[in-house]
Amino acid sequence: MDEKTLRTLEYPKILDRLAEYCAFSASADKARALKPSVKLHEARERLAETSEARQLLEERPSTSIGGARDIRESLKAASRQAVLEADQLLDIKYTLIAARSLRRLFEREGDRYPHLAEITLRLPLSTGLVDAISRTLNDRGEILDSASDKLANIRRDLKIEHDRLLSQLKRMINNPDISPYLQETLITQRDGRYVIPLRADFKGRVKGIVHDQSASGATLFVEPLSVVEKNNKYKELQLEERDEIRRVLLALTAQVAEHALVLEEMIEALADLDIAFAKAKYAEDMEAAEPKLTPMTDDRGPKSDSRPPTPIIRLLDARHPMLDQETVIPIDVELDPQTWALVITGPNTGGKTVSLKTVGLLSLMAQSGLHIPAHPESEISLFKSIYADIGDEQSIEQSLSTFSGHITNIIRILERADSSSLVILDELGAGTDPQEGAALARVLLTHVVQRGITTLVTTHHPELKAYAHATPGVINASVEFDLESLQPTYHLTIGLPGRSNALAIAERLGLPAEIVNAARQEIDPADLRAEDLLDDIYRQRDISQEARLRAEEAKHQSEELHAELAERLEAIEDERREVLEQARQEAAEEVKGVRDEIRHLRAELRRARQPLEVIQQAEEKIEELAEEVEIPVVRQVPDITPVSGPIRLGAKVRVPSLDKEGIVRTLGEEKAEVQIGVLRVRAKLSELVLVGGGEASPKEKGEPPPSAVRRPTSDVGSHPSPGVELDLRGQRADEALDLLESYLDRAYLARLPWVRIIHGKGTGKLRKVVREALQRYPQVRSFEAGKHNEGGEGVTIAELRK
Prior knowledge:
It is a single chain. The chain is about 45% helix and about 15% strand. The strands form 5 sheets. It has a 6-stranded mixed beta sheet, with helices on both faces. The chain has a 6-stranded mixed beta sheet with strand order 19-15-16-17-18-20, with no helix packed on it. Strands 1-2-4-3 form a 4-stranded antiparallel beta sheet. Helix 5 packs across helix 10 and helix 6 packs antiparallel against helix 8. Strand 1 (about 190) and strand 2 (about 195-200) form a beta hairpin. It has about 800 residues and is an alpha/beta fold. The chain is built from 22 helices and 24 strands. It is flat and about 140 Å long.
């Protein structure tokens, strides 16, 4: 990427903000050095890492690189054989522990976060350093006795000598022959040796070596001759301890140096992981989204067109990331498949330059793996290079004017740019004679369009508006100005050039009307007509937008009412189920009581040797009633059809005559063909009811497989449907057969594919009669018992012939 362009588009400021989210200096340094990728797969992987990090932090907000430290300087020192201090070794230990915890986390969650898990594979499993450092140092950085056997022995001897030395000095200061000569009865240290405070007046009363005296000179700090040897021994052991500690630290340092390469790779991996977390946090704060990063498309223009493919730019609700995200006005930038250049016109301070920078900067961010402040459906191609000429290019040192500076930069850009580049030019043709500048701008645009270079420009030249309107591959855009408030609105409109507001603004500010009118007379009448036409287009567009907003508001209110109605119906259905379930339970209790009475009556009749036929008939009725009582109350989903538009192909509808839902396959002026499962029926449009929003799911919209059985098309309504279910419970056998035969005839004429016959379980007599009749009926292809959730043996499902 062009370094000058990166600075022009303020990309380093984005990296500085990203670095603020990093947890340690290694990742912050790497964040500031981040460059946009020119490889599509690499840029997509970076974006995927950021998305995974956002998901992880949303589910596990406390996830971080833990206590990791930037140990790169320590590793360099270890490689030079410099002895590492205790705090440096502890930093290494904590970093290794953090790396180990992260690796274990992604070993468990690797399937959900594959890109992040791949980074953690670079973290070491075990180097033995954590245990080695833990045996040597405690968390305060103190060397433990367990660091070495020799150190443990030295410290044991040191304690013994220390206790002996202090015991002898205590006896001396408590000796009544010596204590009167002391300033205080205490033991202190001077130059690492134990001494007692002797009053200067009694110098020589206690034989010893004077190490120091008080500021007033009244006290001498004397090491008695009797403890000199013990002090010497104690000092020798301290030196031995120091040397052994240095040897232990040197051994640990050598162990660190041995694993230096592994530890350096660990720091790199932790930095990459921390950058992913930083990108995720930055994206959350910006309310950013992952853009769809695409390769260049080759569908712009006919196949005979020799121009190279052009990248896709489709940024919706895009916001400049450096501006206040609460107040910045979002813009939509979308180039259609035939557009190579976008010409933006409009007033000064209206947002033209910000629009250019927004597109360029969001492109750089996307290729760096950063989510962009735009709508999630935004899409942009990967550019191999991005060039920008924005701002004042004046150079006093090189004796270049503003115009010369711009031209020098444009020459450099044209030498390097190609069809895979994005070129951004601010105020093209400015800084020189307007006529010559406009001519140069037109030629430059023609040149880049012919080369297939995607180019975004801003200009004040009115000639470029006409050029963009008349030239294939070039499109106008504008930032708007509010004449009432005399303030720019910062809205970007694609497809319309900016209006000339100079005279209107002058008139609003109070310039005399005769001057304004005289100026208007100087303008070419054709230009005035064009401006009037443009004003009318803007007015019509505003009317259209207001109508669309009103329609959206009405739709929103309709959806709210629909949701409220659904909620109320749900509450009513809950109450219905509760009442029916209570009634079912009460009926079940009554049936149980009747059964008990019948069993008791049967026993009495058997003892009295009376016939049981009457009792058996009563038992059959009771069993049928029990089956009905045992059926649980099924929750009914309310069918709420919201207000919607006309029926379209692919719409999901309900056919009331069949009480079934299907998908519209063909559509005529008065009738439609609806597919219900494998059945296709024709029905009047007036008889169809849209279901939900009228949209079928992709699965529902798909055609049935060729192997599926398809019924021939029929006219619903020519023979009314008797419904797909017949309930024969409680009927005598002969009555049931009459009802069944009549029902099957009507079902076949209505072209029903199958029917459901409910006969109950009971003694099985009615079931047997029904199935024998189905076996004889010529229009029944096959039949079978219902599934468990359909009623089991109490139901028979019969498939009818074509």
